[in-house]
Amino acid sequence: MIRKTPFHPRTSEANETGLWSHWSGYLAADRYQMSDKFEYFAIRNSAALFDTSPLYKYRLTGPDAEMYLAGVMTRDIRKCQPGQAQYTIWCDDEGWMLEDAVILRLSPDEYLITTAEPNLFYFEDLIGRLSVEIMDVSDDYGALALQGPHSRRILEQLAPEVEDLGYFRVISAKVGDAAVTISRTGYTGDLGYEIWVDRDDAVQLWDRLLETAAPHGAVPCGQDAVLITRIEAGLLLIGVDFHSARFAWNDDQRATPLELGLGWMFRDLASDDRRFIGRPAIQREIEERSSRWATTGIVVDWQDWSRLHNERGLITSKDHTPEHGGMMIYDANLERIGYTPSFVYSPILQRHIGIARLRPQHSAPGSRVGLELSIDHRYEVVDAHVSKLPFYDPPRKTA
Amino acid sequence: MAKNRYDAIVIGGGHNGLVNGAYLAQSGVQTLILERRHLVGGAAITEELYPGFQFTTFSYALSLLRPEIVHELELTKHGFMPLLMPSSFAPTEDGDYLLLGQDKDENHHQIARHSKRDADAYDAYGHMMEQVVHAIRPLMDSIPPDITSKDPEERARLAAMGSYLADLPAGVLHDLVRLLTGSTADILEDYFESDIMQGWLASSGIIGTKVGPRSQGSGLVLLYHSFGEHDSDYGAWAFHKGGNGGFTQVLARAAESLGATIELNAPVSHVITKEGRAMGVVLEDGTEFQAKVVVSALDPRRTFTELVEPRELPADLVENIQRLKFQGTSAKVNFALDRNPTFPALEGRSDQYRGFINVGPSLDYLERAFDDAKYGWYSQRPYIDACIQSNIDPDMAPPGKAVMSNFVQYAPYHLKESDWDGEREKLGDVVQQRLEEVFPGFGDLVLHREVVTPLDIERTVGLSEGNIFAGEFLAPQMFFFRPAPGWNQYRTPIEGYYQCGSGTHPGGCVMGAPGRFASQQILTDLQKRNKKSS
Questions:
Q1: Predicted TM-score (pTM) of this structure
Q2: Chain B contacts of A158, Cβ < 8 Å?
Q3: Are the CB atoms for A380 and A371 separated by under 8 Å?
Q4: I want to staple B301 with a disulfide (CB 3.0 to 4.6 A). Which of A350, B100, B464, B508 is the partner?
Q5: Could you report the per-residue pLDDT of B152-179, keeping only the tens digit for each?
Q6: Could you give the count of Cα atoms lying within 13 Å of A325 in the half-sphere of its Cβ?
Q7: CA of A399 to nearest chain B CA: how many angstroms apart?
Q8: What ipTM does this complex have?
């Protein structure tokens, strides 16, 4: 029997479409209304409530927790003070990326980690003699993301301390009777928050949030809408933009953080004295410039896109449904130079955009490339250019 | 402060003036845009008329704006944001309703509640309209040939157009002619049997125009309104963030970022001409600005008979402009509401208010509303195209409150036995009464009401007789003949004086195409002039 999140009594009432996916063994709404695009615009113009409970959640405690994370995680957890959050990744000894996650540091010795895949076996095996306890608390909490330009105005009505909560900061608060942990994080690239709540208080939180949010035009939103925004925000999705090296069969399926556009994590590597897993390999890759790929954005040339459709007598397609396939990218000589694991028409940018994996020599912003697509079962190559990520980055996200 | 000499001056900071000025500036032409009022936008403005409530006083939605303008002027960098209107709601006479959304199959079942035959016909009708729109888009999206010209190049363009039409599938061409010449009712009755489907769809055949759904020529209005799109969804409308005033602010930012100067509170008295050439403009306060290119974004009547001396123009042009039909027939009644109104059959719900609300439940209803206008009076049971825009963009009203735009027909500019200064609030009462019938208790929700008659449109925006398209959408006033035969390519008989308003091809509805095409003509002429002088 498929599992239901702590919010299911409410999400099941709200879902008018009957469209659900299975996400980590839980029912997750694809969309609540007939229009996923309306939910998308709620994220970009008002606010939307997204049930992220299916993510795996781990609580790390103990006097050595910081030392443990400093050795396991690629980014330096020591720079994440209590009350802060950090986006981080972990790699294997070869410097291949395993996963990414956000860590919330609740106190000097207490952390919460959310991950897309189960990691307890992996994490526990690395504890050794350190005094750290890792608990899988996935089932103990419900988690909600409230994302969008109105999210602060909504949430501060329930938890006034949110008003001053900075980007990637964490607080404990109360919403009604429910104790919650609120972080200013999200997967949409917009102003937004993520809220953890004891599963028994989940319905109460949902009700309070929605009651407060509705006058702002906020609505529950499903995965379909969020998956558009995360491409606009240039945020990677495991299983799509990369795969965990733990379960890869060959190096084509593996990628390094540098190859995935996360080189910014190593800006201070010279002054970083940690021996974290994968460091020698990453350092070598930096020194030898041996990355096989660069991850960047590509933007399709709108005129060429229209031309290809016009030539077939078709209305120009502007479909906001993400394609998680792997459309091939070519250079001017039609040599294959990469692919786009994630591609979508962005309503807010009015452009077809993709997260692309390209050979480094072709990855400079502005470089011209060709993207292969199929129109009426015919392969065509449409003009595109390389662009920096993220595509969409409103100042309010961090303001 | 603006300097006194520019390469080009655009008179009027409505959407076409801004588009035109932005394109000129983009090509390195030093451009000054002069706007009479304290804000740009012309009829596409948003105003806070009641604290916290943003009113789209006149123009209220977006569809026909050409996508190439969005790309070429990089409008998304300046905040361009067309919000989806996911629903369309049409109350019937008996308290039932038609509610359509984004799911094709769900729409089928919704229509089938009224007629199973109509549910299938809707797909057939939609495909027919899409095919016709797709077929003649290239004609709408280019500068039309000059049918009066003997120039071989123009003749060749005319011939090419003929060939293009001849190459269309016969059925598409036939449907095109039916739409261009027939009535909206004739076309809809071919497909639909239910009153509500006929009434709902017929509204696009009358909006902004002094025709009823049974008038020959209303098919053209229906077709024109189908030219728009929202992300390639033909015929779909969007609500721009902040209303159409939000959109024109985006245009203004784009124009300024490209180097154009915008001067507000700068009403132009007239264009300075010398020996048949435009030399600049004079403001009403006497200030002069010089430029070799002057572009009027005003309507044809103002462009040819007020900004310049008609005696400087060919007599046939003046005569054609004087015969141009304006006869504005639309009004707006906008409300600030304490909350969303209640529709009894959907009590407790408000998702039906995320798009247009069509109060025009049958062809007969619309035709009777038109009857009043035929005889010089405003409709006593008017057609209303309503939209409670705060449901699409919550920033239009305080949380929980609502702002409602009501486009109203018919309200003829010329009233037979009274005038609009005397009838304004009575029109507001008629509209409010009609809304009370649809939404019982509506009156109790009203915090503020704004009534905009055709006279107010003329006074405030400057559109002659309050015609929202700057000239009626009637066949003799379109394409080859917009605004007059021989002058449909944005030039005028005065060298250096151009027209770029909605009174030129293709027309109104916040398309932006007139402004864009005019800029192309101006830039072509400037290039020729520069070649000559070099």
A1: 0.97
A2: none
A3: no
A4: B464
A5: 999 999 999 999 999 999 999 999 999 9
A6: 12
A7: 18
A8: 0.95
